[in-house]
Amino acid sequence: MSSRKKESPSVTFDPEAEIAPARALVPAVMKLNEERVDRGFWPKIRKVAAKVPFAQEALSVWFCAKDEETPLAAKGMMLAALAYFVLPIDAIPDLIVGFGYTDDAAVFAALLALLGRNLKPRHKAAAQAAIDRLETD
Q: Can you give the chain as a three-state secondary structure string?
């Protein structure tokens, strides 16, 4: 081992930059993802709920991520998926008609395959109620 003191790289987060999925459970990244989701989820879901077939799943995940009973690791991964949905930086830009949300749908499908057991009937019911409200507005 070297006796030299190694410098720690300074770590800064750009709230608009994409985050590597492997870092989804790092506390600072979880906090940043939660802030992104809190700021951008409802405006985005209001805008696209009628256009995306996975809107109810996204809402169920949102309600589950906000539930205090959801395990921390599951919350971190859910917040990462929701942040990916909210962020304008995308593998396939959302503006491309017909294909823009396929990457988001794939992220939610993978998330539900891994963590679907965390979604409780109350989360799904809250999501359905939110969809119903969005449709009447």
A: CCCCCCCCCCCCCCCCCCCCHHHCCCHHHHHHHHHHHHHHHHHHHHHHCCCCCCHHHHHHHHHHHHCCCCCHHHHHHHHHHHHHHHCCCCCCCCCCCCCCCHHHHHHHHHHHHHHHHHCCHHHHHHHHHHHHHHHHC
Mean pLDDT of all residues in 59-88:
92
Token reading at 118: 């965390």
| Residue extents of the structural domains in the chain | 24-136
User: Can you give the pTM of this predicted structure?
Assistant: 0.75
In Å, the largest CA–CA distance within the chain is: 67
